[in-house]
Every structure is written in C-alpha cells, then in structure tokens.
Amino acid sequence: MAASPGSPAALRRVREALSAALGELRGGESREGAGGFEAGRFWEALEEAFQAASQEATKLSLAFSRPPPPSLQEQESLAEGVQSAVLAAASVYYQLPKGQGTTLRRAVRDATVQVVEGMIQLIEVILRTPLQSLSQEQLVSTGGVWEACSRVFRMPRDNQAAVTLAITQALGIVNDALEEMKQAQTEGGDPYSDVLEDEDLGSRANRDTYWSAADRQLLGPCLGLVKAAKICLKRVQGAVRGRGRTDKAEQVAQLDDLADIAGDVSPSVDELVLSTYPPVNQLALRLNAAKLASVLKKMLELTSASFVCPPSEENWVQFLAGAVDHNMDKIKELTQGLL
C-alpha cells in the first residue's frame, strides 16, 4: 500500500492558524495602519504578498505530490513558509485605511479571504489524500490558490474603480434577469417550456404553469420596472466612471453609498422576476415591485445629491424616476382589488 502523509502536526497547526486569521478577516473592519498611507507602496506590498503565497502553495503541493513524504523538518519549513506568506497578505490588507473607501476595502478583503480559503482547502486536501501521486483534487486546489493570488493584478486601485466595478457587476446580474424575463414572455403561455418536459408535470394542462389574463396584464409594467433598473444602473455607472473622484472624504463616502444601493438593486430585481412566474401571487408581486421601485428611487436620489450628477445631468434622473413611478402606479392599479 502507498505511503500516506497521515496528518502532519505542522500542517494541522497552520490550518488552525489560517482558520483563525480567516475568522478575523470575515469580521469585517480592518485595523487602521499607523502613519500616512501611500497607495503605490500598498499595492506593491499586496502584489508581493499574494505572489509569495502563490509560490508557497506551489512548494507545498509539489512536496506532497509523490512518496516519500517530506521529513518532519521539511514539513515544519513548508508550514512556516505558508503561514508567513498568507498572514503577510492579511497584514497588508489591514494597512488599507477606511478613508480609502469601504467598497475598495471590501474588494481587497474579499480577495484576501479567497487566498486564505484556498490555502486552507489545499492543506486539507493534502492531509486527507493518500500520498501516491498528484491527485486531481490537489491539482484543482493548487490552481485555486494560484487563481486567487492572481486576482491582485486585476483589482481596482481606488474607490472610484471599485465602485464602478461593483455597479458593473450589479448591472450584469440585472441584464441577465431582464433577458430571462423577456424570453419567458415571448415563449407563449408556458414560461417553463424550456426547463420542464411533459412527464415532469404529468399534464401540460396544469394551469399552474401558465399565466392568466390578469397575470399577463401585470407582466408589462413589471418588465418596465426591470428595464428601468437596468437603465438606472447603466447611467449611474457612466456617471461614476466619468466624474467619480476620490480627492475628498465626502466624495469617497458618496461613491460608497452608490455602490451599496446598487448592490440592493439586483436581489430586488431577482425577487420581482421570480414572482412573475406562475402560479402568480399578485399580492407578493406587488410587494416585490414596490420594494424594487423604492430601491431605484433611493438610488436616483443619492445620485442626484452626489457630486457625480451636475445640474446638466438631472434630466435623466427625473425621467427615470418618472418611469419607475409610472410602472409602479400601473401595478398598483391592476392589483387594487387585492387590498
């Protein structure tokens, strides 16, 4: 039988140390670094730390890729290298001040968390895998650490870029939901036709899989609200990208507010889209539509009050607010009898 590394004490200790560090990172707030913040030095240090973690993952994986296992002394050295590199990456994150923006800090924290999680997973795979040859699971785990570490080179470097990215991600989710909604409505009376076969339902005559005439009346304004969500996000994205600045604390804070509200749009859209599928609970649909409308109005208010929206841009804000109100009023009118 092939040799097994068993459960090396050094690797178990590192796993516990990294798990503790992961808990702190997930706690949210970063510690404030002492002294002045220099962006160039910060990003250089973060890149070096992530690269070092990637290299340590490679060394660890190769050492446990074939028998015999590393000696106890070699295991101690490998474990120390992994722990030092990963904790150094976390330490660099903690040097990013709150004043640089919560959206940027969240992006850096999430990237650091992925590195720590990836390294813990790699260690766990090594601890439980018989030492015969490099397993597929170990290869995948090693590649996962590499990918997590390489993210540092694609990360936004300031809060404007981080907020633009956050809004772009929300826009992508909303666009997918909009296309799904359009497709369901153009396929006729059965929105489940592409995911359910006849035998799945027993009978296609089951009316729970079709829209009633009253349901269909609601689909138009619901689609209008989702379209408004897409356009709102697109216009705010353009405003942040074109006029976003991070020179003042107030600018940074306003950008963070826009990122936060944009993050509320996509789940609200998803809830509304799901509630349009039959059997439709029209009261639940109205409540979800009202929630989305409220989020969109709040985003437009924050945009209008922020530095990214000069007076010359207020027309589109007012137009979109009117579009949200129009579609929501239509939904209220069609569901008035339920109240």
Protein topology:
Layout: H1 9-26, H2 39-63, H3 72-93, H4 102-128, H5 136-150, H6 159-186, H7 198-201, H8 213-243, H9 249-275, H10 282-305, H11 314-334
Helix pairs in contact: 1-3, 1-4, 2-3, 2-4, 2-5, 3-4, 4-5, 4-6, 6-8, 6-9, 8-9, 8-10, 8-11, 9-10, 10-11
Family: Belongs to the CCNDBP1 family.
Domain Cyclin-D1-binding protein 1-like N-terminal: 46-186
Protein name: Cyclin-D1-binding protein 1
What does this structure look like?
The protein has helices spanning 9-26, 39-63, 72-93, 102-128, 136-150, 159-186, 198-201, 213-243, 249-275, 282-305, 314-334. It is mainly alpha-helical and 339 residues long. It folds into two domains: 9-154, A middle domain of Talin 1 (Up-down Bundle); 159-338, I/LWEQ domain. Helix 1 runs parallel beside helix 3 (72-93), helix 6 packs antiparallel against helix 8 and helix 6 (159-186) runs parallel beside helix 9. The longest helix has 31 residues, at 213-243. The radius of gyration is 26 Å and the shape is flat. Residues 197-301 form the Cyclin-D1-binding protein 1-like C-terminal domain. Residues 46-186 form the Cyclin-D1-binding protein 1-like N-terminal domain. It is found in: Cytoplasm; Nucleus.
